[in-house]
Automatic annotation (TrEMBL):
One of its GO terms (molecular function) is ATP binding. InterPro entries: ATPase_P-typ_cyto_dom_N, ATPase_P-typ_P_site, ATPase_P-typ_TM_dom_sf, ATPase_P-typ_transduc_dom_A_sf, ATPase_P-type_domA, HAD-like_sf, HAD_sf, P_typ_ATPase. It is found in: Membrane. Residues 103-192 form the P-type ATPase A domain. It is a multi-pass membrane protein. One of its GO terms (cellular component) is membrane. Pfam families: E1-E2_ATPase, Hydrolase. This is HAD-IC family P-type ATPase. The chain crosses the membrane at residues 42-62, 68-86, 213-234, 254-275, 591-613, 619-639, 659-680, 686-705, 712-732, 744-762. It comes from the Bacteria.
Length: 800
């Protein structure tokens, strides 16, 4: 079929297909609507609990006790703003890099937006175009790169009747193709639909733990709240308003509302810091997951290497003694840069001086091009096509480079003038040497992988390319175990878990196999991150615990990911990990402060029910304790730079530090209440003494979790002390404080001394238990009794 015979669809045929819905509109694969984002952040179980408490306080007119509401509103707003911001950034990344393409309609060529193409449209594809839908070549010839779809970076020649997959790129050539599958029926869309059907991965461990804590506290406070109200209102007869405020003072103390806000703010600040470094978080919580990753799966092309080809070096043939570089430079000077290979050659060989008489363009039939100087043609092309009968004679010179994964081109002189009409080689050639091409290693790759190695993160290279090539690239990038490679086509079902244990480099991997590798690693207890830039990576990215996409790749992969490197710079990965560590380590420390109050409030509420007494503290006193021994230091400590490796699980670590303080608080206040009743201390004296006790124990807990003390942590503690003293001196009525008498001061001194001893004893025990849990998390059932004892002693003595 000649170009003149191609008329394409008529306008009537186009209209009919539009009416039938056969349009090339990309599916909305991941994006939530603004309404969905708002609804999911507003209507949460956490917000429901506080809405009920607020309604009850409004009902009895206790407006002053609604101080917790701004925290809840701010928490919700931050979550909404961050997700809307991520949605806005994502919407700017087009599904296809090319927005318009030439189509033939009514016999005329015209540029048409890709989303307005219809099934059976005839399009003209040229160098640099991205194929907009699954198509079939009807005239002409192309060289196509399908790396974003298959993971293989080889250029594939497409002639008449060859199939073209949407999302692949035209490297060189020109051809007309008819679109056979458009929109949701195309290959790229089917992969995206399959990824969407898999759903989202589970939330990060820290957020999941906090959500679980809030959920169980929310369940527990319902019967506890009813019991406290019944006791106060019906048994102790203290009136409706006081009964509700007393009950809510206990309940609010049991709920870690500030912890939820602190976590959201810390994650949002991390997201903002990363955004300034061209790293976008699709989901704020993913920064924590990445900080916990111990296996990172990476692709070769686009992650370890640049997506473009580059000349690595030129090697002279053993029989040639001339200046090979000058000859290739003269060749490059005269050839048009109409494909990726020639662009790479021209970028490396820049000093050509001679002007050619004529040139012989590259064709996929010949697989070589030439430059004519006088009666001689200098050729560069595929060795088997240039050498022909001489192939066996020179094979030993270049096959070792091919085995190492280089793409090898041969440079040779042909004794004669070749033209487009007479391009066949009939004489032997003089071999000059070989040009070795490869995807160049990213400059920052080696230092990045060195960082992950130091942090104990295993790297698994999963690529669609030749395993020998992938292994060589992995070795150059400094990846440990790069010599342990395997062809993925030899791995059978059921052998994946053994394969990921024995090998670090996997070549010729198909898209569905990438997901199997991720699952196999997860089945062995690993937290797995997956990087990718192509459609072939989507399924594995969705299955991984954390997914990272390069913005330079296909944006279907960008949509499926949790972390997007907007400048496609893999060197930003350590920055993301460090931000995650800062969030987790600081929130883990601050959460201990919050849970001290929650544990104490719960135990004190149960104690009050058993002893049939009213809750000893007032809401204002709880506010004072929360503000300056929990809230202020927690938020300030959360800003501190802290890039230590995360050890153990979030909740066990938090509880190990919170339980000693919570138990000490409860024991001290319980003894105070009993002693106060024996020596006839009034309600004001008991409440104020209890407040001072909780403040002092709070500072002990703060000192313990801040160890080792540095200037910043000391300043935070100093500021908290000043605020407590100032509030006590200047605002005693606001916080329901009274002047302590001699009896109260004596009891306070005795109980504080006892509390110091109890807290130290409990802290040593729980620190030992926490270290045991960390080691058990690493070794599992293989942990021995000797390791158990060693870990307990190490934790107890605070030796990490």
């Amino acid at each position: 079929m000649t170009d003149k015979q191609i008329t394409g669809l008529t306008q009537a045929e186009v209209d009919q297909r539009i009416q039938n819905g056969q349009v090339n509109q990309a599916i909305d694969d991941q994006s939530k609507t603004a309404t969905q984002i708002i609804r999911e952040n507003v209507f949460t179980y956490f917000n429901l609990i506080f809405a009920i408490l607020a309604v009850l306080l409004v009902f009895v007119g206790a407006w002053n006790d609604l101080t917790f509401l701004p925290v809840i509103v701010l928490n919700t707003i931050i979550g909404i703003v961050q997700e809307l911001r991520a949605k806005k950034v994502l919407s700017k990344l087009n599904v296809m890099n090319a927005t318009e393409i030439i189509a033939v309609r009514d016999g005329q060529e015209e540029k048409i937006p890709i989303e307005k193409l219809v099934q059976d449209d005839v399009v003209l594809l040229q160098t640099g175009d991205q194929i907009p839908a699954d198509a079939r070549v009807i005239s002409g010839e192309l060289r196509v790169n399908e790396a974003l779809l298959t993971g293989e970076s080889d250029e594939i020649t497409k002639t008449k009747d060859a199939e073209l997959m949407s999302g692949s790129f035209v490297v060189s050539g020109k051809a007309y193709a008819v679109l056979e599958k458009v929109g949701k029926d195309s290959y790229i869309s089917k992969l995206t639909i399959e990824a969407k059907a898999m759903g989202s991965v589970e939330q990060s461990e820290m957020v999941r733990s906090i959500n679980r804590l809030v959920k169980w506290v929310g369940i527990i406070i319902i019967p506890v709240g009813i019991a406290l109200f019944n006791q106060s209102f019906f048994l102790n007869n203290i009136g409706l308003k006081r009964s509700i405020t007393s009950m809510e003072a206990a309940l609010i103390g049991m709920i870690p509302e500030g912890l939820y806000l602190l976590t959201t703010i810390a994650l949002a600040l991390a997201a903002m810091r990363l955004a300034r470094q061209e790293v976008m978080l699709h989901d704020m919580k993913s920064v924590e997951t990445l900080a916990r990753v111990n296996v990172l799966c990476v692709d070769k092309t686009g992650t370890i290497t640049e997506p473009k080809m580059a000349v690595e070096k030129a090697v002279s043939s053993k029989n040639f003694t001339g200046d090979l570089s000058s000859i290739i430079a003269d060749f490059a000077k005269n050839m048009p840069a109409d494909n990726a290979t020639m662009k790479a050659i021209q970028a490396y060989f820049k000093d050509g001086t001679k002007t050619a008489d004529s040139i012989l363009p590259f064709t996929s039939v010949n697989k070589y091009s030439g430059v004519i100087f006088g009666n001689q043609t200098t050729l560069i092309g595929a060795p088997e096509m240039v050498l022909r009968d001489q192939f066996a004679q020179y094979q030993t010179e270049f096959e070792k480079y091919a085995a190492e994964g280089y793409r090898v081109l041969i440079a040779a002189n042909y004794p004669g003038v070749l033209t487009e009409d007479n391009s066949a080689l009939k004489e032997n050639v003089q071999v000059l040497g070989y040009i070795l091409l490869s995807n160049p290693i990213r400059k920052e790759a080696k230092s990045t992988f060195q960082y992950f190695n130091q942090q104990g993160v295993d790297i698994k290279v999963i690529s669609g390319d030749n395993p020998v090539t992938v292994a060589r690239v992995a070795k150059q990038a400094g990846i440990n175990g790069a010599d342990k490679y395997i062809d993925a086509q030899t791995i059978k079902d059921g052998e994946y878990e053994q394969a990921v244990q024995n090998y670090n480099v996997f070549g010729r991997v198909k898209p569905d196999q990438k997901r199997k590798f991720v699952v196999a690693l997860q089945n062995q207890g690993n937290t797995v991150a997956m990087t990718g830039d192509g459609v072939n990576d989507i399924l594995a990215m969705k299955k991984a615990d954390c997914s990272i996409a390069m913005a330079s790749g296909n944006s279907a992969a960008v949509q499926a990911s949790q972390v997007v490197l907007l400048d496609s710079n893999f060197a930003k990965m350590p920055l993301v990990v460090n931000q995650g560590r800062q969030v987790v380590n600081n929130i883990q420390r601050s959460a201990s402060l919050f849970l001290v109050k929650n544990i104490f409030s719960f135990l004190m509420a149960i104690f009050s029910l058993i002893m049939t007494i009213n809750y000893p503290l007032q809401p204002a006193q709880i506010t004072l304790i929360s503000a300056f021994t929990i809230g202020l230091p927690s938020f300030l400590l959360a800003l501190e730079s802290n890039h230590k490796r995360i050890r153990g699980k979030f909740m066990p670590n938090v509880l190990a530090r919170a339980i000693p303080g919570g138990l000490t608080d409860w024991l001290a206040v319980a003894i105070l209440v009993i002693a106060g009743a024996s020596i006839s201390l009034d309600h004001g004296q008991v409440g104020t003494t209890a407040t001072m006790l909780l403040v002092l124990v709070g500072f002990m807990v703060m000192y313990h979790i801040s160890a080792p003390i540095n200037k910043f942590r000391l300043a935070v503690m100093g500021l908290s002390v000043i605020c407590i003293i100032g509030s006590t001196i200047f605002f005693p009525r606001l916080f329901s404080l009274t002047m302590l008498n001699n009896k109260s001061l004596f009891i306070l001194a005795v109980l504080f001394c006892a509390a110091v001893t109890i807290f130290r004893w409990l802290s040593k025990i729980l620190d030992g238990v926490a270290e045991v849990l960390v080691v058990f998390d690493q070794k599992g059932k293989n942990m021995t009794f000797a390791e158990f004892k060693e870990a307990y002693d190490r934790g107890k003595n605070n030796v990490k």
